[in-house]
């Protein structure tokens, strides 16, 4: 395996990590209207329980996107340039949504009125749903190919990216992240909220199964290979096992299988893309591939040694963080904190 192919695999690994981890963050944020009653005069303790499940980790999860973007820029500058110029408006909307969500997490608790909190809760929902949908649209377009000319410049418009396959991809990630997040709420809370989250995860999981199956079948047909078929099948089996585990009240297993579903789904897309990194629908000769989009051998060597040292440390720190905050977020703890505020 040459270094360019190795770094294609590392980029895939980083995006898998981002979608698995920030994916359930998005799902938790989107669950607020269904479990916390955003915009209604409902129990604020429930909404705080939901938000606090990801309070210690959401910003750490987002760093995977920063690392993935930085590595993409350094290892595949041509891919980075074509992607960020062609998908500029879509990526800008994602960035603005992530900023909106981050600000809402930090400022929600600064005010005491219900109107103040409800306003920021709505922004958390929007800031979670928009990236969850647009990431699916973006990656579906990357796999399907876009209108790249001989200079590797995207010649289409934002509306060209909103095609049937891409919209189905966006709906798939939206529902998949929602289900993943609601399962996480069930895993991390207690009482009525835990029971409500389990029921919602079951209904959302069934809807996700239908939509994701359609998207994966479309992907397999359009980019058939034995590897793509096997990975898509593993994603489907993992999702079914997640639904069954949730039905049996095994939230930990349901969450683990949900993470595997996201992992296999993302790897399926990268396998369907290989050895291209951004296909051209104008002429296959204009496509960006692993070979013509990568950095120099010397650059990739330096990056490889850096990753060999840094990546294990990042993984250890991430694992330690989740271990420290592994306990459930209970109503008692929220009410106790409010009493001493």
UniProtKB/TrEMBL annotation:
<protein>
    <submittedName>
        <fullName>Cytochrome d ubiquinol oxidase subunit II</fullName>
        <ecNumber>1.10.3.-</ecNumber>
    </submittedName>
</protein>
<dbReference type="InterPro" id="IPR003317">
    <property type="entry name" value="Cyt-d_oxidase_su2"/>
</dbReference>
<dbReference type="Pfam" id="PF02322">
    <property type="entry name" value="Cyt_bd_oxida_II"/>
</dbReference>
<keyword id="KW-0812">Transmembrane</keyword>
<keyword id="KW-0479">Metal-binding</keyword>
<keyword id="KW-0249">Electron transport</keyword>
<feature type="transmembrane region" description="Helical">
    <location>
        <begin position="82"/>
        <end position="103"/>
    </location>
</feature>
<feature type="transmembrane region" description="Helical">
    <location>
        <begin position="124"/>
        <end position="144"/>
    </location>
</feature>
<keyword id="KW-1003">Cell membrane</keyword>
<feature type="transmembrane region" description="Helical">
    <location>
        <begin position="6"/>
        <end position="24"/>
    </location>
</feature>
<feature type="transmembrane region" description="Helical">
    <location>
        <begin position="200"/>
        <end position="221"/>
    </location>
</feature>
<keyword id="KW-0349">Heme</keyword>
<keyword id="KW-0813">Transport</keyword>
<comment type="similarity">
    <text>Belongs to the cytochrome ubiquinol oxidase subunit 2 family.</text>
</comment>
<keyword id="KW-1133">Transmembrane helix</keyword>
<keyword id="KW-0560">Oxidoreductase</keyword>
<dbReference type="GO" id="GO:0046872">
    <property type="term" value="F:metal ion binding"/>
</dbReference>
<feature type="transmembrane region" description="Helical">
    <location>
        <begin position="164"/>
        <end position="188"/>
    </location>
</feature>
<dbReference type="GO" id="GO:0016682">
    <property type="term" value="F:oxidoreductase activity, acting on diphenols and related substances as donors, oxygen as acceptor"/>
</dbReference>
<dbReference type="GO" id="GO:0009055">
    <property type="term" value="F:electron transfer activity"/>
</dbReference>
<dbReference type="GO" id="GO:0005886">
    <property type="term" value="C:plasma membrane"/>
</dbReference>
<dbReference type="GO" id="GO:0070069">
    <property type="term" value="C:cytochrome complex"/>
</dbReference>
<keyword id="KW-0408">Iron</keyword>
<keyword id="KW-0472">Membrane</keyword>
<feature type="transmembrane region" description="Helical">
    <location>
        <begin position="302"/>
        <end position="325"/>
    </location>
</feature>
<feature type="transmembrane region" description="Helical">
    <location>
        <begin position="254"/>
        <end position="274"/>
    </location>
</feature>
<feature type="transmembrane region" description="Helical">
    <location>
        <begin position="227"/>
        <end position="247"/>
    </location>
</feature>
<dbReference type="GO" id="GO:0019646">
    <property type="term" value="P:aerobic electron transport chain"/>
</dbReference>
């Amino acid at each position: 395996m040459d270094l360019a192919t190795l770094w294609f695999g590392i980029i895939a690994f980083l995006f898998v990590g981002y979608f698995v981890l920030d994916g359930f963050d998005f799902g938790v944020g989107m669950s607020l209207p269904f479990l916390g009653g955003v915009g209604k005069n409902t129990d604020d303790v429930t909404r705080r329980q939901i938000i606090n499940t990801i309070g210690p980790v959401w910003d750490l999860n987002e760093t995977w996107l920063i690392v993935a973007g930085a590595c993409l820029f350094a290892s595949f500058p041509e891919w980075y340039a074509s992607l960020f110029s062609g998908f500029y408006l879509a990526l800008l909307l994602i960035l603005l949504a992530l900023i909106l969500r981050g600000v809402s997490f930090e400022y929600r608790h600064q005010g005491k009125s219900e109107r103040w909190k409800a306003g920021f809760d709505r922004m958390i929902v929007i800031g979670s749903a928009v990236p969850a949908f647009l990431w699916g649209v973006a990656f579906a377009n990357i796999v399907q190919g876009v209108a790249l000319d001989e200079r590797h410049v995207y010649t289409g418009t934002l509306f060209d990216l909103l095609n049937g396959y891409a919209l189905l991809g966006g709906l798939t990630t939206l529902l998949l992240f929602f289900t993943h997040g609601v399962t996480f709420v069930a895993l991390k809370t207690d009482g009525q909220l835990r029971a409500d989250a389990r029921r919602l995860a079951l209904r959302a999981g069934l809807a996700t199964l239908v939509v994701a199956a359609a998207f994966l079948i479309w992907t397999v047909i359009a980019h058939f290979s034995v590897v793509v078929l096997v990975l898509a099948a593993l994603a489907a089996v993992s999702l079914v096992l997640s639904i069954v585990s949730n039905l049996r009240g095994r939230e930990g297993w349901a969450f683990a299988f949900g993470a595997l579903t996201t992992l296999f789904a993302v790897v399926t897309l990268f396998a369907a893309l290989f050895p291209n990194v951004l296909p051209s629908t104008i002429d296959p000769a204009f496509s960006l591939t692993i070979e013509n989009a990568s950095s120099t051998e010397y650059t990739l060597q330096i990056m490889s040694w850096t990753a060999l040292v840094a990546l294990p440390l990042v993984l250890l720190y991430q694992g330690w963080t989740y271990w420290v905050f592994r306990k459930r977020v209970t109503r008692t703890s929220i009410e106790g904190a409010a009493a001493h505020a």
